[in-house]
Amino acid sequence: MPSVAVKLYSVFFKFLLKHRLQNRIQTPLDDTNPFGVTSRPEESVAAANPSFTDGVTTKDIHIDSLTSLSIRIFLPESALIPPDSDSKPQSKSRVRASTRQPDVDSGSDLDQHHLRRNSHGTPLTVNSVPHKEESRRNSYGCSNDAESLKFEIGRWGLQRFHGGGFVSGSNDSVANDFFCRRIAKLCDVIVVAVGYRLAPENRYPAAFEDGLKVLHWLGKQANLAECSKSMGNTRGGGTDHKKSDVQRHIVDAFGASMVEPWLAAHGDPSRCVLLGVSCGSNIADYVARKAVEEGTRLDPVKVVAQVLMYPFFIGSVPTHSEIKLANSYFYDKAMCILAWKLFLPEEEFSLDHPAANPLVPGRGPPLKLMPPTLTVVAEHDWMRDRAIAYSEELRKVNVDAPVLEYKDAVHEFATLDMLLKTPQAQACAEDIAIWVKKYISLRGHEFSY
């Protein structure tokens, strides 16, 4: 069961959340203003930091002059070191360090990992060494054909959508900043955190459209960078930049160029992963579906995988977990329905709306075309069963769609401010890093649970 501290904080959290949601329902708002807001006054915000604090530097960009849509880019310091394809042992050690796997000979580390989640089926193997215990997690639909972690290092983009029930949260909050820094370092990647417009000022489909707009913006950046590179090669003979030159370029061009220098120098849009938290998972899944529908029109951007962390799915026919855990920690079902009423236009409100229920008939495209999807669920979360059901439907059409269920965990156990520094939150981030690496590896080495 969750600790006493978590239970007490949950009571306080739900009291405040209910009060804020009811105030927003009762307060008349001008929801016709397209500019919108991306953060609330009560949100604790972390300022962007252009220096490498804790190994990651950040900056904010307002990418749409007509709306409040913005992004925060997280660039790990390791990105400044160009990958050396001839130095395989060094690359291998760098990846192992970034994923922070536990020492299998260390009893204390094993004890922590034993407690973090339940298990069914075969144990996870890392570097061909099986963990000693078999009760680490619930792992649905996962194979165990693991190879050693031998990846060519290459930058890829992770587009991240924060949670908050569509009505709160922000891409520059303290909690979001901490989590994105963790992912950037663990995966050695550029993270693009999306500041989408919040409801009720901007209802559906504003947040969904913002997510897709960022994907298109990344595509434009890639094309602009390619043009800039071609012009540079023509003028300068195609000479390679040294590390000092790259660093000087980042400092000199900070926010002063049409081509975003961090993405131009280190991004790889052909290996883009979407990661959503709670309602952000709904946005990520929508963006993934639109990416499938648009196909080559998004080139050079390619969505190679998505990660859905405790997705904010619901439906008119309640699942077993929705009945049993309706009054669960932090986000109970009644309050989440209030959030859906604030997000969906009044004339469109339905718990079986395509934005809310991933398995309603006629929701395109065909599931067999969806990208590989990792789903993270918590034992004490009323939303877990519908997320698992969606994953099962994906596996039926041969989509790689494992589910990791963490025992004694609550909704947002890996991203909520007070839980971010727990061993379970760290373990979840490590697990995500392991899974996505097989889809961002230049050589495509397979590594599965």
From TrEMBL:
For this protein, what is any one GO molecular function term? hydrolase activity
Quick one: where's region Disordered? 81-142
Q: Which domain of life is it from?
A: Eukaryota
Which Pfam families does the protein's record reference?
Abhydrolase_3
UniProt domain Alpha/beta hydrolase fold-3: residue ranges: 161-414
Q: Which residues cross the membrane?
A: none
InterPro entries attached to this UniProt entry: AB_hydrolase_3, AB_hydrolase_fold, Carboxylest/Gibb_receptor
The text of the family note is: Belongs to the 'GDXG' lipolytic enzyme family.
PANTHER family on file: ARYLACETAMIDE DEACETYLASE, CARBOXYLESTERASE 11-RELATED
**Name of the protein described by the UniProt record:** Alpha/beta hydrolase fold-3 domain-containing protein
Where does this protein come from, organism-wise?
Liquidambar formosana (Formosan gum)
